[in-house]
């Protein structure tokens, strides 16, 4: 059979159109400063034995007006523990570790108001107030006991001293002494905090806790991990900034960035509207059912060995990443099963890498993203098959991404093959993500010749599709090849 010259033109659903280049780089809440604002005498008596209680109370009282209770019920009177009332040094010169631990200890051992989940005493919204100070600490602020909840720590800065333990966290929600086998804490809120780990250890550790809020925190100079979540459920990290070095991008030291911004080693957590501006890995995911939304990673460029989001849960990811911004640093997922990456922006040749461990890629949606690169021929989705090929691929949809200055890759490819011939071959290798895997083909055979040729799909192999006819005719053959869809047979 004679095969004439054929012009192949690929076009994809995610067509190219014009783009705009976006440049990177680019309380004292209590009316009462008193250590304990309760007026109920027996509660105060409980505290009298504490060191220097009277002095702190009187000091505070002399500076602040007395609390006006809005209700006669003692359980609605707020408890606010001011670090300055405990002798902590808000100028950051003297070591304030003991004072802060005393305040935390009093807060945790303060009066409760019933229970949250079983085993968690409800502290009723007690607050540890940093009074806008910056405190030097030489040991982790590790919670002394477990089984407490509904507590807020907020409003100031903590800085690790030069002899802070290199494996410690400035704030450590793993109890020094554990009481019971349930969750350690519930509904602890860490808010409006600036944490400087001074290149000694990490920022915050949350262990086996429920419904922890980390909100509007700036965590820097960590040498291990900015925020580490171990076990538990529903730690929500919101509106926060994490960076090992304080930089706004293009840092000459970027190759040396180390450490991890956030580790989620548990389920059902969320990171929303959070920036990781320097670290080797932005977010490391080691559990399931975690959601990332509005995350901006420019921690360490892929080209320097960095990773924006690393999903290291081979066999079951159950992770969804939406509305995020991967800025010169990409996403890596090992044997991903159930992973969505959608409505996100990849800048600076950032891409998605699937790393084969046992060859599984199942339930993936990499759709409706924007990719922008620098014409270096970088594929938007890549495979690392150094451990073996992906050979268990099902329900993978990589499609509808728009691409500028990078190579588009997809699991759905469409092409037109034109020619006066008996054979039309479309080679989709440059577009399709997986080698030698086409699950479904559809084609339309369009000819304006007077004859009505017999034609058929004759061969699908090596990501090539061959259509043949019984007689030579000038024809355009429109072919769609799909690697992803589940096949249904009837
Ligand atoms: C910081 O971490 C690096 C490894 O990433 C380690 O070599 C170094 O000793 C650590 N620094 C401190 C002060 O512990
Ligand atoms: C441990 O919990 C039990 C029961 O809630 C309580 O009676 C006990 O005082 C707690 N111990 C400590 C050290 O918190
Ligand atoms: C990276 O770190 C090494 C070792 O600490 C240092 O010699 C080098 O100057 C650093 N690079 C930059 C660009 O600062
Ligand atoms: C198509 O090819 C056949 C066989 O080579 C030839 O006879 C015919 O004229 C060609 N038709 C057109 C429109 O070029
Ligand atoms: C399909 O094409 C491949 C590659 O050219 C070839 O090895 C194979 O034998 C073909 N299959 C059939 C059924 O013709």
UniProtKB/TrEMBL annotation:
Residues of the Rhamnogalacturonase A/B/Epimerase-like pectate lyase domain: 84-304
Transmembrane parts of this sequence: 7-26
EC number from the UniProt entry: 3.2.1.15
Sorted UniProt keywords: Glycosidase, Hydrolase, Membrane, Transmembrane, Transmembrane helix
Range of residues in the leader sequence: none
Keyword Ion transport included in the entry's annotation: no
Pfam families listed in its UniProt record: Pect-lyase_RHGA_epim
Any GO molecular function: polygalacturonase activity
Superkingdom of the organism of origin: Eukaryota
SUPFAM superfamilies for the chain: Pectin lyase-like (SSF51126)
PANTHER family recorded: POLYGALACTURONASE QRT3
Protein name per its UniProtKB record: Polygalacturonase
Organism from which the protein derives: Handroanthus impetiginosus
